[in-house]
């Protein structure tokens, strides 16, 4: 399971749009982000959790991956570059 999870996160981190999602959102540049997004998540954090053994199942990682994108949809408006990626 861990090998499959590593392959999944690696592919996501190499995707063309991944720079938007690879690192935590910089709240000094986007100060209102935490007003809208209660539980931030990014692909680097997911990878770190995977490598450190914090996930006990692929399902847990899947929940965090979905959180990355639901946060994107919550913060960004339809039609924006981030939303459409």
From TrEMBL:
<protein>
    <recommendedName>
        <fullName>Bromo domain-containing protein</fullName>
    </recommendedName>
</protein>
<dbReference type="GO" id="GO:0005634">
    <property type="term" value="C:nucleus"/>
</dbReference>
<dbReference type="InterPro" id="IPR018359">
    <property type="entry name" value="Bromodomain_CS"/>
</dbReference>
<dbReference type="Pfam" id="PF00439">
    <property type="entry name" value="Bromodomain"/>
</dbReference>
<dbReference type="InterPro" id="IPR036427">
    <property type="entry name" value="Bromodomain-like_sf"/>
</dbReference>
<dbReference type="InterPro" id="IPR001487">
    <property type="entry name" value="Bromodomain"/>
</dbReference>
<feature type="domain" description="Bromo">
    <location>
        <begin position="13"/>
        <end position="83"/>
    </location>
</feature>
<keyword id="KW-0539">Nucleus</keyword>
<dbReference type="GO" id="GO:0000785">
    <property type="term" value="C:chromatin"/>
</dbReference>
<keyword id="KW-0103">Bromodomain</keyword>
<dbReference type="GO" id="GO:0006325">
    <property type="term" value="P:chromatin organization"/>
</dbReference>
